[in-house]
Amino acid sequence: MDNFIYQNQTKIVFGKDTENMVGSLIAPTYKKVLLHYGGGSIKKSGLYDRVIASLEKSGVDYIELSGVAPNPRLSLVNEGIALCRENDVDFILAVGGGSVIDSAKAIAIGVLYDGDVWDFFIGKKKAEDSLPFGSIVTIPAAGSENSVSCVVTNDDINIKKGMVSTRAEFAILNPELTYTLPPYQSAAGAIDILAHVMERYFTPTPDVGFTDRLCEATMKTIIDNAPIIMENPEDYNARAQIMWASTIAHNGLLNTGRLGDWASHHIQHAMGGMVDMAHGAGLAVVFPAWMQYVYKHDIARFKQFAMRVWDMDAAFGSDEDIVLEGIRRYKAFAQSLGLPTTLKELGISEEWIPKMAKICGRDGKFVVLEVSDIIEIYKLALV
Ligand code: NZQ
Ligand code: ZN
């Protein structure tokens, strides 16, 4: 186990009706809020009205910027930065999923920087400061509400990139807000949560038994509860288990003392820059191909994954048989949720593979992948 420092200042406010507390979480410290949201789901569900009522009740002044697209665009981030500066905004409230929260994070960081906010995404600049921000989460998936990452698509060049950002001041998690999710989004969210754990589970760091067990509990929670919400979208308990697991999966706790891999995420981000897709749907395609390509590197870890997470029995066959059946069970799980398993289904064309692999570059910590390896992984995922 490696040395680590873990600091996480985000206040988590969890449970029914908690969105009504948003005004009192912001006032009296902050005076002027940018309310940031997506394409309108929050208006349809009535959440928007409750948020406005809470802000007004607490005497918080606000302006709005809506229209964040899944795979948030840099152009809207730049609009948000200008708006915050013109209106002396001192707090950003994101109401939505990972896309809205990431857009809010990029705005929060960009407002305090004189240069081009894209500099943070291409590694020219490190994010050390930002306007304070918080969120009301409407989809458990990206975990952005408590993570230190922020992923944005530069719509001038169709490249999607992540950066290490700052953490939110608070996150409001009401599982009831997720009842209105389309099944495909719930499914993609479940796979993204699993992926956040798997990126950490497949580690080169030895002696990480405790965090292995935390990871396994988190993955099991998703595997047990995702089918329940597909059947009954208003099952509060299943929604609640998934929502809390989603935050824990990506808030850094599970990778304390260990290195994560992250190649699969970057392989998916390169796809998301080319074609709009649900991030989790892309991961459902990438992860089995990645596992297939790298499992020989550490058969024991993949066997542990198959046995503890996918309930494989040691009597099933050889270690390799167990590993391959574990990968098959992961794939079958994603399929059972209605997600794609090939690049073709996602509209990714074979000719784009070299370009996407180049965008990723050398990647991965569990196994270091060269661009040529990433090309092979894309090929495995093709059909
Ligand atoms: O825009 P609206 O109308 O709100 O609709 C959204 C959107 O179309 C809809 N939705 C969200 N909550 C809803 C709802 N519809 C009905 N009822 C609700 N309660 O769902 C669609 C997807 O929303 P989005 O925010 O894109 O989903 P998600 O949370 O999966 O975020 C994906 C983005 O997060 C990035 C991904 O790359 C992608 O851009 N990620 C961010 C991470 C981070 N910052 O830590 C880590 C992740 O690995 C990921 O890369
Ligand atoms: Zn993800």
How are the SSEs placed, and which strands pair?
Blueprint: E1 11-14, H1 22-26, E2 32-37, H2 41-45, H3 47-57, E3 61-65, H4 74-86, E4 91-96, H5 98-111, H6 118-121, E5 133-137, E6 149-154, E7 159-164, E8 170-173, H7 183-201, H8 209-231, H9 236-249, H10 263-274, H11 279-294, H12 299-309, H13 319-336, H14 353-360, H15 371-381
Parallel strand pairs: 1-8, 2-3, 2-4, 4-5, 5-8
Antiparallel strand pairs: 6-7
Helix pairs in contact: 4-5, 7-8, 7-9, 7-11, 8-9, 10-11, 10-14, 11-13, 11-15, 12-13, 14-15
The structure holds 5,6-dihydroxy-NADP and zinc ion.
Residues 142, 192, 195-196, 265, 279 line the site of zinc ion.
Q: How is this structure best described in words?
A:
The longest helix is centred in the middle third of the chain and has 23 residues. The radius of gyration is 20 Å and the shape is globular. It has two domains: 167 residues, Rossmann fold; 198 residues, Dehydroquinate synthase-like, alpha domain. It is of the alpha/beta class. It contains 15 helices and eight strands. The model has no long low-confidence stretch (mean pLDDT 97). The site of 5,6-dihydroxy-NADP (NZQ) has 35 residues, from helix 2, helix 5, strand 6, helix 7 and helix 10.
